[in-house]
Every structure is written in C-alpha cells, then in structure tokens.
Amino acid sequence: MSDALLDVQGLIVTSGRGSVVEDVGFKVAPGQVLGLVGESGSGKTVTCRAVIGLLPAGSLAITQGSVRLDGQELVGLDPLAMGRVRGRRIGMVFQNPSSHLDPVMRIGDQIGLAVRHHLGLSRREARAHGIELLRQVGIPDPAARIDNYPHELSGGMRQRAMIATALACDPQLVIADEPTTALDVTIQAQILRLLLDLRDKRGLAILLITHDLGVVAQTCDRIAVMYAGRIAEQGDKRRVLTSPHHPYTAALIRCQPASGGGQGLLPTIPGQPPLVGAMPSGCRFHPRCSRVQPRCRELVPPLEARCDGSEAACLYPIEAPVLEFGR
Amino acid sequence: MSASLLEAQDLVVQFRGSGGTVRAVNGVSLAVRPGETLGLVGESGCGKSTLGRAMMGLTPLSGGSLRFSGEAVESRAAWAALRRQTAMIFQDPLNSLNPRLTIGETLAEVLRVHGKVPRSGVAARVAELLTMVGLRPEFAARRPGSLSGGQCQRVGIARALAIEPKLVIADECVAALDVSIQAQIINLLIELKERIGLALVFIAHDLALVRRLCDRVAVMYLGRIVEEGPTEQVFGRPLHPYADALIRAIPEIDPDRPLPEAILAGEPPSPLRLPAGCALHPRCPKAFAACAGGQPPPLVPVEDREVACRLYRPAPVPA
Residue B148: helix, strand or coil by DSSP? Predict the structure, then answer.
C-alpha cells in the first residue's frame, strides 16, 4: 500500500513511567476504514492523539517514529503548522459530544469558526455551508437547528452535529474515537451508517477507535488489535475475525457472547491487562496467554506477515482457522 | 403466580421537573421467581434503572404496590424485611465503594449492621465472601484505590452477598468493564446463580450478555414493558417491533453480516411529551392508524409471553 493516506511507522509515545505506545505502525488508504481495537489502557486513544498532535503536553511525548499524512511528516511539525492540518485535513469525532462541543456556542457558530479560519469563508458563506453540512449528516430542519445550542439536541443529534464539525473543512481523514460508545444501539447503527455513507460519498479515510468488535465487524475494512501499547495483530477484517493468528485476538473474540445465544460459562482471559511501568518482559501478553512457551517470557515478538496477508506479533501464532460463523 | 419472590403491580414512579412531570416507570407489573434471573433491557431513559431502584424502595413509588415473599410491602416493617433480603450491585464499581475503608472494613460493616455473624466470626466470613467472588482473602487489607475495575466489581458483588440476599438487583454491573473482565464477572454471576440459587434482576443494555445469563427478559420502552417472556423465545422470535429492532441492532462479530439498515426511524421522543396511543408509533415500521390514538396498548398474553402491541390479539385463556 504505497498510496496510503495516513502512514504511521514505529511510533513510540512515552510518559514518565515508561512507554505507553510502543513501536506502533499502520496505514490507512483513502476510502478505507481502519478499526483500531483494544481494551482500556491498550494505548489506542494515545495513538490517535499522537497522530493529531494533541498529546497532553508535559506528560506524554512522541519519542520516536513517524506519522505521514499524504506524504507530509507530522511528527515534529511546529504547533502553527500542525494547527493547519488538524481540523483542515484531519477531522475528529470524539466519544462524548457533550464535552467536545462548546455548550455556550450555537452549533452553526462552531462549524462556522472552523470554515472561516481554515477556508476563509465569510460569515454568510459559513452559515450556508453549515446548513448544508447539517443536512448531509441527516439533521432534520437544518436551517432551524443551526441556531440551536448543543443542549437543545438529543445525544444522537449532538453526535451528528459533531460529525458535521469534523467534516466542515472537507478533510481527507476522519479520526473517530469511540464515536458510538455513549449512544444506544438503535442510534449507534444510524451513526455508523452515516459514517460509511460519508466515506462512500467523499472518499474519506476513517480511523475508527473502538473497544467493540461487533462495531468493527460491521464497519471496517481492516483491523489493528492493540494490547498493552503494541499492535498484536492487524490485517483484513474478515481474516482477522475468522482466523486470528494472535492468541489475544482469538481470546478477545471468544469471550464476547454472541447474540445468537449459547449456554453456560463464557470463555475468559485470566488476569488483567498490565499497567504502564510494570510491563511484563518479552511478549506483553504472555502472563495471560494459554499458549505460552518459555521463549515468550524473553523475546519480544516482532509483527510478522502471515501467509494470508495478516500480520501478527506472536512467536507461536495460531495457524488453522479456529472460529466459525453462521450460527 | 403465587410462587413469586418479588411481585410488582402497576408500579408508577414519577419525577417532577421544571418542564413537567416525567413518568419514568409507567404502570409496570413484573414478577421475579425464586432462583430466577430476569433481564431488564431497553435504551437509556426507558426507566429500567428507576424500576430496579423502585423494586428495592430506593426511589419513592408514586403508585402501584409490591409484594415480597407473598406479603404486601406497605408497612415500615415490611419495607425493612424487603431491604434485609435484597441487595444491589451498582454500575460504577469504584464509586460505589468507600475509598477510605479497606475492603475488609466495607464487608465487615455490612455483616455487623445486619447482625449476620457474631463479632468473632466476622473476619472468617469476610475471607469466605472474598473467596466466593474469586478474590484472595488478603484483599481484605486493601483499599478500593489499589484495585482494578474488575476486582472492585467483585467486591461490590461480595458486599451484596454479605447479607445473604434472596434477590440481587444488578444495575449495568458490567457496563464499565473491559470485555475480557466482563466475561469473568458474568461467569461469576452464572456460578452464583447455580450454586446458591440466587434470584437476580439483571439490568443491562447489552443484549448478548442478557441472552447468555437470563432465564426471562423484559424489554422496556419509555417507562413501559413492551414484551416479556422466556429469553430464548423472545430473542429467537421477538414479536414487538421495538424488541425486534433492538435485537437486530446488536453489533455482532460476524464479518459477513452487514450493518443493519436503520430499523427504527428517528429517536425516542421526550418523556415529557409522550405521543398518544402506543409510544413507539411515530418510529414503528408496522404502525397503522389505530396505533396513534387512545390508550397505550396493554401487556397481553400472546403465545408463550406477554406483548404490548396492537398487532397481536391475546391468546385464548385455557379453560
């Protein structure tokens, strides 16, 4: 994939206690949806914040690696230049729209701010643009809604408004960090459908961060699974979900109950994810792994390509397809 | 159903606000039998948490009545008896524990207040409770701050079990946990259910978990139960259009199943201004003229369950 829009390589983010993100690399092509999956503390949100240059100053910093957007290196870019990329070429959708929309600013003004700053539109043009965007994200009666404050909208409508602000400057890439976690399932399906429609219409690349494998299965083209700051496995969605090579991926898929039913105890992953500063040696998953071997405690497994095109970071990867669908 | 452990009749809970009165629970009748796990599902704002709290007397009732073990819960003594035998597990495991008490002190307090064991036996019972939820007895000396989310939730369950309850109400007790930890807690609940015959009301929005854990399920929409019946039957063939939409919207880890087309249009209306007739009719794909007027459809027996929808006629009562 030489035509990747976003190309992250060897990214290392460290805090005072150790590395939070270690040697993470992935690519997103235009029109593609990459799902970054992991449990809390796996480093998925830190990775996306590193990409957009929004790491909390003083506590977290990129110490190595590169982030390229359409060929341009973003790591080490001065804040002013980064500000021209963020919002203009990369749009962001966060988990909680209520805390990422300004509560004392009308929806239209929030969209207008971005387009007037980045695109130099006039006040009147910005308003027309805002109404058009709200219409595109499926908000009924956009000409009236544009003068609403965020609290006057429902949760689903607020998330649509935030997607509109993310799209305001016609970005190439949208980073969506748990965009549907705070929403109900029937609304979640509507918002995911909207993101996919926008991808089709505008050729957007989407980096979707989520803990929900079900969401990933229905929306993404590719998946990267993170565990304890590293990528455990990545590849085509279908291959990763139906024949995972990394024991962590396989266990994660198995321990989620299928809506199709099933009786008795669920398979579990014993123990809990490690904390930053107390990472196990060797493979970070080895204390919880059912296939652990002595070598796993010493050697850090590199992310290696498997014959089916997936990449897995495991010394003893699973080879046979282990999961069946179509229940 | 005389064998019910807890029986709610026409429960109403209303909250008065500046914008008007919200009936969060609007005439709900529900029964929990001994040893049974009942799932209470619905979207946010449908009243499932309020119903759970009302069943324990944590929220004052505006109408309706409760019966516990066959006795009407009216007098102070009856309420006290209900509370001595029911316990609650909360959503946020960390915030529901006192950060200044050790785990042992938290559990000992419950044992002492309820007088469950003599003073000399408290330490042993604390160790026993911790073992029961899969924690080592040494955890008694630790404080909540040094525990992970999953461990805190285990303590929350141990605290609920400390009073030897007949009924536990678990309100979204795994929603804040990671998937791998979530499975551990669900397994713990399945084990406890089998081992000590605990009756459980499991309030959750995650339907796949409910299907795994519960014997019966009640689906709520805007303060009312719209469908209630045996879990396998309801999930296998939901009758009410809302239950159907909710079950079909579950994101499934199946790469071949595409994103479901929007099943329900729009969003739930404000509970302050409920539509006339069936509350679902503005969003319902199967709505017809009669749905838009009159009283909301009552919950009537249909086949092996109860459904509140005008599409269905009540099953004939066997003579």
Answer: coil
d(CA A257, CA B213): 10
Does the pTM of the predicted model rise above 0.90?
no
- C-alpha span between A297 and A281 (Å, rounded): 6
Spatial separation of the C-alpha atoms in residues A290 and A60, rounded to whole Å: 33
How are beta strands A304-305 and A311-312 bridged, if at all?
antiparallel
At residue A198, what is the residue type?
A: L
- Identify the three-state secondary structure at position B65: strand
pLDDT at position A282 over 60: yes
Using a pLDDT cut of 90, give the percent of chain A over it.
61
Write phi, then psi, for B302 (nearest 5 degrees).
Answer: -135, 125
Q: Which domains does chain B have, with CATH numbers?
A: 6-100+143-307 (3.40.50.300)
- Chain A residue with CA closest to B264: the answer is A186
For each of chain B's 319 residues, which pLDDT tens digit applies? 447 899 999 999 999 887 788 889 999 999 999 999 999 998 888 889 999 999 988 899 999 999 998 889 989 899 999 989 999 998 888 888 999 999 999 999 999 999 889 999 999 999 999 998 888 899 999 999 888 888 899 999 999 999 999 999 999 888 878 888 888 889 999 988 888 889 999 999 888 889 989 999 999 999 999 999 999 999 999 999 999 998 888 888 887 877 777 678 877 888 888 889 999 999 998 999 989 988 899 999 998 999 999 998 776 665 5
Amino acid present at A217: A
pLDDT digit string, tens, across residues A226-266 = 999 999 999 999 999 989 999 999 999 888 887 676 777 88
Facing residue for A325 by CB, picked from B44, B150, B256: B256
Task: Classify residue B1 as exposed, middle or buried by CB count within 10 Å of its CB (0-12, 13-18, 19+).
Answer: exposed
Please indicate whether, in this complex, the C-beta atoms of B183 and A192 are within 8 angstroms of each other.
Answer: no
d(CA B301, CA B142): 51
Alpha-carbon gap, residue B230 to B213, rounded angstroms: 12
Identify whether the C-beta of residue A229 lies closer than 8 Å to the C-beta of residue A20: yes
How many of the other CB atoms lie within 10 Å of CB of A127?
Answer: 19
| ipTM of the shown complex | 0.78
- Residues from chain B contacting residue A159 (CB–CB below 8 Å): none
CB neighbour burial string for A58-90, b if at least 16 within 10 angstroms, e if fewer: eebebeebebbbeeeebbebeeeebeebbbbbb
Q: Are strands A18-28 and A6-15 parallel, antiparallel or unpaired?
A: antiparallel
Interface test with B, best of A190, A206, A259, A269 (most B CBs within 10 A): A259
Number of neighbouring beta carbons within 10 Å of residue B256: 11
The DSSP secondary-structure symbol of B144 reads G
Which residues, in sequence order, are bridge partners of residue A86?
A90
CA distances from A279 to A19, A62, B263 (A): 9, 19, 45
Paired sense of beta strands A18-28 and A33-37, if any: unpaired
Of A185, A238, A262, Cβ closest to residue B246: A185
Element spanning A231, H or E: strand A230-236
DSSP B120: G
